[in-house]
Amino acid sequence: MITIISKNGKEKIWKRSVKKKLPTTHTNKKCILPVNIHWVPEKYRTNPLSLKEGGSNVIVEYYENKILGYSNIKLPSAYIKKIFKKEILNIYVSPKNPILDEINVLKKEIKLIYAKKYNEENYQKIWHKNSVKLPWDILKSFDLPRN
Q1: Tens digit of pLDDT for each residue in 58-105?
Q2: Which of 7, 18, 40, 83 to pair with 56, CA 20 to 30 A apart?
Q3: What is the pLDDT of residue 54?
Q4: Confidence band (pLDDT; 50, 70, 90) for 127?
Q5: 76, 143 contact by CB (below 8 A)
Q6: Residues 21-58: pLDDT tens digits?
Q7: Which domain holds residue 113?
Q8: Is the residue at 105 inside a domain?
Q9: 34 secondary structure, DSSP code
């Protein structure tokens, strides 16, 4: 706990929140999942649909030993594309050959991507260092149909 004193002199006690970990299956029939998955909390979600159950779960394992899980994603292809473009690709990609550059940059930053549809039991390894397609193109098969 940390005591914070505001401008008007009032004291507040700040308790560090503990990240809620969703239950994970570390092994399943299709692949072995990493153990230390940090599921992105609901408070960081901007789309209200991701607060409702359904859609897909996506796990991204970065080379820097960061493993993030995203649950209840209705359009994982668009969601992952937005995250990667914001965090990785805007920094490195040249305008000459953007698709090839995007794949090469992602291969340097991202080790593996796993996904599973809400109603399925097992995760699938959908992207790795030998992939020749962009992750969001592969994730289109996990998108829910738009109404």
Answers
A1: 999 999 889 999 999 999 999 999 888 887 766 666 566 666 678 888
A2: 18
A3: 86
A4: very high
A5: yes
A6: 444 444 455 678 888 899 988 888 777 777 788 899 99
A7: 19-142
A8: yes
A9: P
Comparing C-alpha atoms, which of 48, 90, 92 is closest to residue 73?
48
**What gap in Å lies between CA 37 and CA 69, rounded to an integer?**
6
Burial class (CB in 10 A: 0-12, 13-18, 19+), 45: middle
Q: How many domains does the chain have?
A: 1
86 within domain boundaries: yes
- Write the CB contacts of 61 (distance below 8 Å, at least 6 apart in sequence): 34, 67, 110, 111, 112, 113, 114
Considering the domain boundaries, does residue 14 fall inside one? no
In a domain, 58, yes or no: yes
CA atoms of 147 and 133, how far apart (whole Å): 27
Q: Which residue has the tokens 């937005």?
A: 82
Distance CA 134, CA 132 (A): 7
Listed in sequence order, the DSSP H helices in the chain are: 76-84, 90-92, 98-109, 135-139
90-113: b or e for each residue (b if 16 or more CB lie within 10 Å)? eeebeeeeeeeebbebbeebbbbb
